[in-house]
Structures are given as C-alpha cells and as structure tokens.
Amino acid sequence: MYHMRRFGESYWPLYRAVVRLDETFDHKTLLSWIQGDRVPRSVASFKILARIEQRYRLPEGYFKSKLPHQTRSLHGHDLGDISPAERRRISLHLPDDFNKLPFSKREEIVDWVRRVIVSGSTDYRRYQAAASKQRYAIRFPGVTYGGGSLSPRSTSLSASANPDATEAAEDPDLLSGVVDAPPRLSMEMADLIRFKTSTLTAIGFQRNGVWGEETASQKIEHLGLMFGALAASPAGPVKGRGVPLSQLTFGLLIFPGVWDWYLQWREQRRGFYTRWEEDMLMIAQAMSRSEVGWIRQHPELLKNVRPIEGLIAPEEIEFASQDWDGACDAFHRHAANRSKEIQRVMRVHRDPFEPIMVVLEADSPLAEYRKITDEILKRIPDEDLYPRAAAEAVRSFLLLRIGLHLGLRQKNLRQLRVCPRGHFPTSERRLEDMKCGELRWSDRESGWEVLIPSVAFKNSSSSFFGQKPFRLILPDLLDLYKYLEAYIDRHRGMLLGPAKDPGTLFVKTVKTTSLDAAYDSAKFYEAWRTVIQRYGIYNPYTGRGAIKGLLPHGPHNLRDILATHILKQTGSYEQASYAIQDTPDVVQQHYGRFLPQDKAALAARILNQVWEAA
C-alpha cells in the first residue's frame, strides 16, 4: 500500500503490469495481500512479489523480509516424483529460487538436505536407516514397566527410534517390532520385570539391585530383539535362526551356543562388535549369578527347553536337568570370558560427539551453541497473526535455554513440571513420590527456581547429590524470564488447546489426532532434533541456520557441551561435573579427550600473568 501510494497506483493497474496474460494468478489474491487477509505462500506468489519489487525499484527480497512468519516453508517447489511426506520435510530447507536453478543444482540441494538435515550424514545414521527397514523384534504386550508397577500398555519397540532414549548403548534395531510374544514367554518376562522392579523381593528369592522405569523398558526391548533374532526366518533379509515361537523361553539363555550364535549374528550385521554386545552379556551374567540371578532361581524354565540343532544339544539339556546350579555356573563363566574377549575388539559405532563436534572444538562451546537461540529469536513469527507458530518458536527457545542452564538428562528435562507464579508449589515429598522436578517461582530469591529430588536422577546414589535435592535459580539473562513467563501465561495454553494439561513445562502441539499432550522419550527427542534441523544447521543454499557443520542430535548432547565448555575454560574435571550433576571420574572418562590440547594453554594463561604484570 505504501509503495502503491508512492507511485500513485491502484491494485488493478499493478495487477495488469505484473501478471502476464498466459498466467492464472487471480487478481483477488493480490487484493487479499494488500488488505492483509492473506500472505504469499507459494513459489508462484513470490514470482509476483519479485516483479513488484522490480516495478517499484526495490531491493530483491524486500517484501519477503516484511512477512510476519519468516520460518514458513513455500509450497510449489518442482520436486519431481518425491512423495508428499518427504516434500513436507525438505521444502522448508529449499531456497526460494529453487525452481529457477539448473536441474543438476536442484539435485545437489535436495541430496544435501536429505543427507545433512533430514538424516544426518554419519556412518551410524546410514547404518541405522538400513537396519530399521528389517523388522524382526518381539513385543511384550502387557509387560511394560511404568510408575513403579506393571502396566497393561504394550511396549512399542518403534518408540525407541531415538538414539538418546536410554542414554546408554542403543541399537537402531529397536525401531522394529511386529510380532507379539507367545503367552508363556510373556509370562516369563512379566515375572522377570516384577522380580527386578518390585519394592520388596518375593519370599524365598534374593536379588542384587533394582531396575528403574527406563532400565526395565530397555531390558524388555533388548531381550525382545534377541528372541526376535532367534525366531526370524533364516531365508529372509534378517537371516535369523528360525526357532519356532512356541520354543522361545528364558530357559534358552543359560546355553552358551545360543549366546554365541546371537553375538556372531550381530557382528555379521554390523561388521564389528560394540559396547551393545558387552551390555547384553552383562545381563546374561546377572541373570545366572549365584544366589541372586533370576534364571538361577527358576530351574523350572528348563522344562520348556527343546534341543535346537547347532545351538543346544540333548546332552546339555540332560546335564542341566541333573545339575542346574552347575549348568548356570558354567554359563556364567562362559559369559564372563566372552565379555572380556569382546572388550578387547569392540569398536565405537555411534560416536555421541560426532554431530556436535564443530561446537565442541570451538574455543567457547557454550557461546557457539548459544547462536541457535539467537537464530530462533530472530525468526519468531508475529504472535498476533500466528499464535501457534509463535508458541512453538518460544518453546524451541526455552528448550535450549533452560537445557543449557540446567544440564539435565533428557528424562529430567522432559518430566520437569511447572507451577505458575502465584500458585502453591508441589511439596518436595510429593515430587519424590513422582520422581520428577518442578519449576516454580521463589519469593525468597525473586526468581524462577528448579527443584528436583535426588531420587529423580539416573545416578541418584552418586556422591554429587548426597541424598539432597538439586536446586537452582535460573538467571534472568538475555530476556529469559520475559520469554519464560510469556510461555507459561500464553504460549503453553495455545499449544495445549482443549487437551488435558499433563502438568509438565514442555508440552506437545495438540492436534486433532493427538491423544496426549505430554512428551514421551521418542517424541521429545524428535522435537529437539526438529529445532536443530530448523534453526541450528547452517544451510548454505538459504543462508538460514546458526552453525556450519552441525548435524541433527538430541538433548543429551547438551551435557557434552556444558562439560566440555567448563573443561576448556578451567581444566577442572570437578567443576565440569557440577554442571551435569555427576562425578569428576565420570567427566574424566567421557570428556577427557577434549582437554589435552588445551592443557598447555591453560597453564600458559596463568604463567603469562607474571610477564604481563612486569
């Protein structure tokens, strides 16, 4: 309107000047832009905008810079036979002039977006994508552990597509899961989970250690993979062992031949041994350990074992039936020896630092990663016109900012509850029962406080906590409180819509197909990864994104960034451990590789002060 007045022109002459006779662009569309009812969304619309810029002698991109929603993707890109689902994923990362580019250039851009932004170009990601197409794992309906008791929910192995879901050794095969376990195997799994998660051990049994919710879910999935591999057809792509479902039982797990086949099968699929195989052998040793092993205390499991050619000989079953403890002892020794052998040759397949290596190698990793939050603020849409998109952008900003201040594991950040200002906070005893923390306003400190009981942490028995809760006042730096209070007061309600409030600080965008507004582990990882794809990875074809060389990653990498930053600044393992609620030994084990090249510089910084003073 402003430029039309400058040139004394109405919308109809303008329409006649910029739209060619052979084009089907509707004059009402131009009128809707002028009146503010609609905004350009398609590639064709931006062609018209470019012509108006030329007509009024305006710089290229002038009108696009005025749009109230800068992160919105265009539709109408010429992407050939790419499916609609993939179009939605990659269109946001294509330049506006994509259709004008030569075919070879367009192929190059699409390949880069697929490889770097959508999938992440690491060896592990490529292996993960290939392995996830082969479905073979066994599900255990009704055996998922949650909230301290057995839950009737079905465990979905696809929910662990997230590589950070367990914060330990993981496997992309967890993406699969299409066969329900037979009733007997399900009952055996239920008994194992009850044994390892109940508050009190059943009379007549002994155990060493208790599984938490995440550990129990992980063991269900990993054992489901093993049984699924045994049951998969040898003729199929999985190349399993072909054991009938009716013969699957936990009694198979005390025979060395079964484990040797499974370990070698995994090595052939991946090409080498990893920490994953060692962890599975630790499970085997724990279940067969003298006096406290679950299998050791259930000799009746042997009744369901049948000979399997090449894995279990009839003589082995006969020996186990006569001397169950002796068979368990023999297997325990075998598993311990196999574990030592694998430790000597195992390799790291998924380097957790690889996606963020460009950040960790910076002089100030935290300052480098903080660029993503600046990019989000730069591209927040107009809240009055796009309230939901603005709420999602503020949620993305707070995910990173609060994560960087707290250094929590994914579970603790995801389950963090919120008490709005002026409301009565949840008692510490109640938070201990729920095993989660809360963000609340502290009148004494005049700031937003995070309180998390020590029992909510994975390493709750660590000397870091000393049975005391984690308590931190968030600093009011760079408008953190402004965005946090706007999110709690307005944006969070916009995301929830009509859905039931789960009480957590971070909630999903509720859509018509949504059943629950609370994040689970996989969805939280996916949300974080989307933030990095949209705002974090620098795109040389669009100029958007904060950090060159960054790859998609999950929330657990925040801890790597905080620990490495403090190590580089201070050289202290102890101070680095404070940032991630852990011990100096753990920090040294995981992050020591980032310190050696900086040791001389740290020492020189102190020594040079003498010369500078002179």
TrEMBL record:
GO terms for molecular function: DNA binding. Residues 150-176 are annotated as: Disordered. The keyword Membrane does not apply. InterPro entries: DNA_brk_join_enz, Integrase-like_cat_sf. The keyword RNA-binding does not apply. Residues 150-161 have a biased composition (Low complexity). GO terms for biological process: DNA integration; DNA recombination. Keywords: DNA recombination. Coiled coil: none annotated. This is Uncharacterized protein.
